[in-house]
Known about the structure:
Blueprint: H1 5-18, H2 20-55, H3 62-98, H4 114-149, H5 153-179, H6 182-189, H7 194-200, H8 205-238, H9 252-268, H10 270-299, H11 308-311
Helix pairs in contact: 1-8, 1-10, 2-3, 2-10, 3-4, 3-6, 3-10, 4-5, 4-6, 5-7, 8-9, 8-10
Amino acid sequence: MHIPFERTVMGAYRFGSANYLAILGIAWLPFLLFMVAAVLLVVSMLPELNGLMATGPDRWDQAQVSAFVIVILDKTLLMLVLLLLAFAMVTAGLMRRALGQDSEAVFIYFSLGAETWRMFGAYALLLLLAAAFVLAYCFAVVLLSFLLARVSAALQGLATTLLILSGLVLGLYAIVRTQFFLPAVVVAEHHIGIRRSWNLGRGNFWRIVGVVIAVSLPAYVVFTVFYSIVLQLALSSQNPPLIGLTPGKVSPDELRHYFSTWLAATRSVLPVLALLQLLYMVAVTGLSAGAVATAYKLVTGQDGPSDPTRASA
């Protein structure tokens, strides 16, 4: 069944406006804890960054740069895991409310129950499947390109370009179609239903894209405008010296001064930036939950609270 586009978008904004306090109550603590952890991880990387800046790009050695890259990769991976856990926790709580399973308002929410881990596992599995597809597809493209190189360089270039573009389109289609209904399936049907979500998304790719744009774009525009205004005001008060300089002709001293000035400016408005980021994450997650729950109930023929038996029929 096709997603009713207008009813889904209206359902998302209706859910967001009628439940904004409940959405904030569910989302603020997990996202705040993630943001605090992310800031601590970034701060822990500053000594290595300061060491590189003190040395200067012209005197960097491979071992020093490699060690810094490994530190960044390790802490970025940990940050992504924490973000996925916070997102899974918030999504599970919001989806229960959007599906009508939980009508009680909460103002402090933190759950590591089965639904949170099921949601975490669903998104982790989806990411692993996507990564496996990318690796397998890249290996196939490289192998075919190597074989075609022996026949014709022009044919190799054309085929490789077409395969890369086809892979991007196919990957985007698969991710969009699979992930949209996944939160509702996990909560309503109590299992990691990647195949079920894929089936529900059949024939709905462009509708899903339209719903996602209609739900997320307005919030993103508002967030970007306010974020840019706050950051530019902070930077203009510090007067960073590198604006207008030609890349590649910046001295190590100018580079160090720029980074220190930028960090000082950002630090001065960090609470405001963090609040804007938190409100943006809450708004987008709440509207997305409303859209997914509305679309799921319409597609599966449910008008009230979710019925797992009926949904999985």
